[in-house]
Amino acid sequence: MASVDMDPDVARRLFEEGATLVLLGVPQGTELGIDYKSWKVGPRFRGVKMIPPGLHFLHYSSSNPAHIGGETGPKTSLFLTLKSREILLANWDPKEEDLDFSPSENEEEVSRVRANLRDLDPFLGPYPYEVMRKWVSLTDRLTQDVANQLQPLSGRVCAFCDVIPELQLKHTKDREEQNLPKNDVACQSMKEGLEKLPQMKQREGTELRFSSIPSQTYPPGATPAQITQCSLDLSYALVNLLEKHYKLKPLDVLGELQFAFVCFVIGNVYDGFEHWKRLLALLCRSEDAMRSHKELYLGLIAVLYHQLGEIPPDFFVDIVSQDNFLTSTLQDFFQFAIGPGVDSTLRKRAEKFKVHLTKKFRWDFDADLDDCAPVVVDLPEGVTPE
Asked: Which architecture, in CATH terms, is 8-139?
């Protein structure tokens, strides 16, 4: 880890009040980072010191030695909430290629490390203080409770899903009992080959526990006119999500938006990007909710301001520009934000944000994006147009 230029008073305060991650046995060459910074682990590395109290994102990728390729494995991450002066102790498990935090539960072991902390100090890299402001701006709405609620039960956020076969078919007779094609005959087509592949599912406890975004955007018994309206204005679906997951603290949904963004941008979890898109579309296309949830939407603008400020410019070319998702979603948001009944503060903030994005990314939010195209709405079974 490289040295960090830091104000001496800040350094002293962080050394005295900051938390410490003692990470023993991490192999040299492992890519390891905390929050918005990562390094290649060197031979003297024993952990990270002077960590500001609060929520952090630890991430690491094992790698092969240079003489056998030096490839880096998929990233594993976890959210940690650290207290002032806390010492969190972990040992590297070479079999699992993961950190084992169980030593932190041994009070005697933690006390021993604490007593020898000054001897350990030369082997501890300082927290990358230069990224602290950036990290806080990306997670200011994300609480420990929300992070715990969304993080997999396994405690690990993995870049690639841990999948297992839905059916354990070890023998030919097992496939016959399930009426599946045998594997002892060459495939005659791609379709036949795909049918022979086992159906996979994500290992229980490893999936991210995002809020479920309602697939039905209208209330039971809705008329065709109501269904059409609820398909144009997603407020009914948004309110349902808030009632189900964030009834006591509706603004915590912004923490989920930040959680998904961090999982994707830092943790390399594509499901995080997909959920970020869906949740953002739900928020931006809820016109009625915009009039009744002023603080939520003021917060949304602030969250997006920091998120879009941290994404590399080519990110939009490669991903977000597909189907022009972000510009079309934000175009709806800005259109609703100047509608009747919207709080004047929110309207002004939205107008400033629109100008900022237009200048920064040269996006045209006033372009005609298929305004004349008909809206196709799926009607419930048994409902006919009026």
From this structure: Sandwich (2.60)
DSSP state of 125: E
In order, the DSSP letters of 10-25 are HHHHHHHHSEEEEEES
Does residue 51 contact residue 20 with C-beta atoms inside 8 Å?
yes
CB atoms within 10 A of CB 115: 9
Tokens of 2: 């490289």
Taking the C-alpha atoms of residue 20 and residue 53, their distance in angstroms, rounded to an integer, is: 10
pTM over 0.85: no
Query: The domain 224-361 belongs to what CATH superfamily?
Result: Aar2, C-terminal domain-like (1.25.40.550)
Question: What are the C-alpha distances in Å from 234 to residues 211, 237, 240, 357?
Answer: 16, 5, 10, 24
User: How many C-beta atoms lie closer than 10 Å to residue 313's C-beta?
Assistant: 8
Give the range among 29-38, 178-187, 329-338 with minimum mean pLDDT. 178-187
Contact 137/246 with Cβ under 8 angstroms? Answer: no
Strand 19-24 and strand 47-51: pairing? Answer: antiparallel
